[in-house]
């Protein structure tokens, strides 16, 4: 390519991290621990309990891995906000991974 171009590929956090959209647990317990801890970091906005950190570390992860997760979440939030603001389209290569809002389930009736 003769021009200097940069394409931004934006996937949701759920695509970028091992967080399954199906909600089914992973067979690999370490990967499941990573998914659960990452989800807790997002849901709790970084305010995970010492017990949650200890469980993560007990799965052979490190404090550095905790900071890597924080850094990755921050990067994805910044990237997603900027791309939403400027209207960056999802590249054709990744369209099949684009997040779609799930259909709302009707409330159960009693």
Structure description:
- With 110 residues, the chain is mainly α.
- It is 47% helix and 0% strand.
- It is built from 4 helices and no strands.
- It has helices at residues 13-16, 29-43, 50-58, 63-86.
- α2 packs antiparallel against α3.
- The radius of gyration is 17 Å and the shape is globular.
- It starts with 12 loop residues before the first helix and ends in a 24-residue tail after the last helix.
- Mean pLDDT is 78; it is low at 1-18.
Principal-axis shape equals globular
Q: In percent, how helical is the residue content?
A: 40-55%
First-residue to last-residue Cα separation: 62 Å
* Biggest sheet layout: none
Attribute tags:
globular, 4 helices, 47% helix, 110 residues, mainly alpha, disordered N terminus
In a few lines, what is going on in this structure?
The chain is an all-alpha fold and about 110 residues long.
Note the topology.
Layout: H1 13-16, H2 29-43, H3 50-58, H4 63-86
Helix pairs in contact: 2-3
